[in-house]
Amino acid sequence: MRSLFRLSVCLAASFLLASAAISRTIDTAKSSMTVRVYKAGVFSAFGHNHEVASPIVAGSFDEEKPAVELRVDARQLRVLDKDVSAKDRAEIQETMLGPKVLDSEKFPEILFRSSHVERLGDGKWVVEGSLTLHGQTRLIRVQVEGQGGHYRGWAQLKQKDFGMTPVVVAGGTVKVKDEVRVEFDVRGK
User: Fold this and answer.
1) What is the DSSP code string of 6-72?
2) What is the pLDDT of residues 32-42, one digit of tens each?
3) Where does 64-135 show beta strands of DSSP type E?
4) What is the pTM of this model?
């Protein structure tokens, strides 16, 4: 489930394809990405949905040619869950970054590169591109809205598509859904 957070980082890159006319660098201090992981299973009421901050470490976009590239360091993903104890949050963090999910030491980089941008209307696009996560590259689609160097959007990803198995506890009665949602708010410099 933590690996899904990294996917969100890659998706954020796609937002950058909208208006002006010059290749721009992503302002990592003013940009953010969040991965939302949801619970499932018979006793899911005893589990937790997870919110993961996914810092963008580098990226750029060209609004004239529509193109975007975004990089995230998987080792920097942070579990933000407010409804759990600090001890539980630390355990969730360790599981997310560890070999059972993201294996962030072995696969530290998450990368998104756009390959096609379709304009849907004023300030709206669908961006397709390759997302490399957990050592595997897959084509994804990102919904993007914005203008003038400020873009927001989201994408749905499946952990299994990137070779990760969603976390299961209590004999499968509480588990994480395979599908995660990645949301981003990106600004150019």
Assistant:
1) HHHHHHHGGGG-SSSSSEEEB-TTT-EEEEEEEEESTTGGGS--EEEE--EEEEEEETTTTEEEEEE
2) 999 998 876 44
3) 67-73, 78-79, 109-121, 124-133
4) 0.80
**CA 52 distance to own-chain centroid:** 9
How far apart, in whole angstroms, are the C-alpha atoms of residue 53 and residue 92?
13
CATH code of domain 3-187: 2.40.128.110
CA distance 12 to 61: 11
Domain map (residue ranges) of the chain: 3-187
Residues 153 and 123: beta-carbon distance below 8 Å: no
Alpha-carbon distance of 28 to 14, in angstroms, equals: 15
Per the CB < 8 A criterion, the answer to whether 60 and 26 are in contact is yes
pLDDT tens per residue across span 42-90 = 444 445 788 899 999 999 988 788 889 999 999 999 999 888 899 988 9
